[in-house]
Amino acid sequence: MKVFFSGSIRGGRELLSVYQHLCSFIVSKGHEVLTEHVADPQVEKVESAMTEQEIFARDMALLEHSSCLIAEVSIPSTGVGYEICSAVQRNIPVLCLYRPGANVSAMVLGNPYVALWQYSTLEGLDTKVLAFLISLQAEIWG
């Protein structure tokens, strides 16, 4: 499957190692992450050479070709929220992951169209992501 991974870039990079882990894990399970740039420590430098319009066009085009969206939402990010909403509007399945104690928006927590999972460890994160991907494959190949 083609996975759109979403995580904070301009809102803060404190969870970069989690983003890198998630992207690597998804790829290790045979899926393609269309937005691996989110896990790139140099993404801000790369994107500084792009206009906001180019970033928007790239991300919306990638979302259009995605089978699902997986978002780490522990760090509040307007862009991540916009991507989640855009995926929901396109009927693209969404999984939102967050750490205990994170200040997650009520617009995400209260959204009946997204799957929400809290995680404490990377192993727990892997289990939840894998379960989500397997459930989507079962729906597709059902």
Automatic annotation (TrEMBL):
Domain of life (superkingdom): Archaea
InterPro entries (alphabetical): 2'-dNMP_N-hydrolase, DNPH1, Nucleoside_deoxyribTrfase
GO process annotations (BP): deoxyribonucleoside monophosphate catabolic process; nucleoside metabolic process; nucleotide metabolic process
Binding annotation for substrate: F4, F5, S6, G7, S8, I9, R10, Y19, E83, S105, A106, M107
Enzyme Commission number(s): 3.2.2.-
Keyword annotations from UniProtKB, A to Z: Glycosidase, Hydrolase, Nucleotide metabolism, Transferase
Top enzyme class: hydrolase
Entry GO MF terms: 5-hydroxymethyl-dUMP N-hydrolase activity; transferase activity
A family per Pfam: Nuc_deoxyrib_tr
Catalytic reactions of this protein: a purine 2'-deoxyribonucleoside 5'-phosphate + H2O = a purine nucleobase + 2-deoxy-D-ribose 5-phosphate; a pyrimidine 2'-deoxyribonucleoside 5'-phosphate + H2O = a pyrimidine nucleobase + 2-deoxy-D-ribose 5-phosphate; 5-hydroxymethyl-dUMP + H2O = 5-hydroxymethyluracil + 2-deoxy-D-ribose 5-phosphate
Quaternary structure and partners: Monomer and homodimer.
Record-stated family: Belongs to the 2'-deoxynucleoside 5'-phosphate N-hydrolase 1 family.
Biological role: Catalyzes the cleavage of the N-glycosidic bond of deoxyribonucleoside 5'-monophosphates to yield deoxyribose 5-phosphate and a purine or pyrimidine base.
Cross-referenced HAMAP family: Nuc_phosphate_hydrolase
Protein name from the UniProt record: Putative 2'-deoxynucleoside 5'-phosphate N-hydrolase 1
